[in-house]
């Protein structure tokens, strides 16, 4: 058999401003607003074979603004609202200057997910609303998409690296990603 593993492509997706409305240091479930198009975007990724992995920098934890438990409550509420479609949540709790390996554009979170979820990195995508999300994709040598929600319109004009796709929303980006080449076609 030519294919020696059951590895699947992943969509690594930023949380704030990409899946949900940007709220500065979101700490309370009451302030969580999942974009209305998010559920459909994730369904399309799933039906095209992608694992759905949230990768989020949460320096508010390192700053003492909220706890890991507060964040976990928000992630649980997202899962409930989205029918449990998310395969994994990975977060970096550190301060930007901590020098950790997990904070985007570092690759720690992608590496942890790759280890946990049998991901085929080469056919995966990184999707987010900030320049660091696009740079994370570049650092991992995978394709990237910038969404124009959240900080997207602001960051579009300050990119050091061009994303492969720009979408008005996550749904728009996903429609471009799945037509870009199905996961099977690029294997
Ligand atoms: Mg973001
Ligand atoms: Zn970190």
Strands, helices and their partners?
Blueprint: E1 10-13, H1 38-47, E2 51-57, H2 59-62, H3 68-81, E3 88-92, H4 108-117, E4 125-128, H5 131-139, E5 143-147, H6 152-156, E6 165-167, H7 170-180, H8 183-186
Parallel strand pairs: 1-2, 1-4, 2-3, 4-5, 5-6
Zinc ion (ZN) binds at residues 92, 94, 100, 102-103.
Task: Jot down its keywords.
single chain, 187 residues, alpha/beta, Rossmann fold, 36% helix, 15% strand, binds magnesium ion, binds zinc ion
Could you describe the 3D structure shown?
The structure is a single chain. The protein has 187 residues and is of the alpha/beta class. The protein has one domain (10-181): Rossmann fold. The chain has helices at 38-47, 59-62, 68-81, 108-117, 131-139, 152-156, 170-180, 183-186, and strands at 10-13, 51-57, 88-92, 125-128, 143-147, 165-167. Strands 3-2-1-4-5-6 form a 6-stranded parallel sheet, sandwiched between helices. Helix 1 (38-47) runs parallel beside helix 7 (170-180). It is globular. The two termini are 15 Å apart. The protein binds magnesium ion and zinc ion. The site of zinc ion (ZN) has 5 residues, from loops.
Task: Provide a short characterization of the protein structure.
By secondary structure, the protein is α/β, with parallel strands linked by helices. It has eight helices and six strands, in the order βαβααβαβαβαβαα.
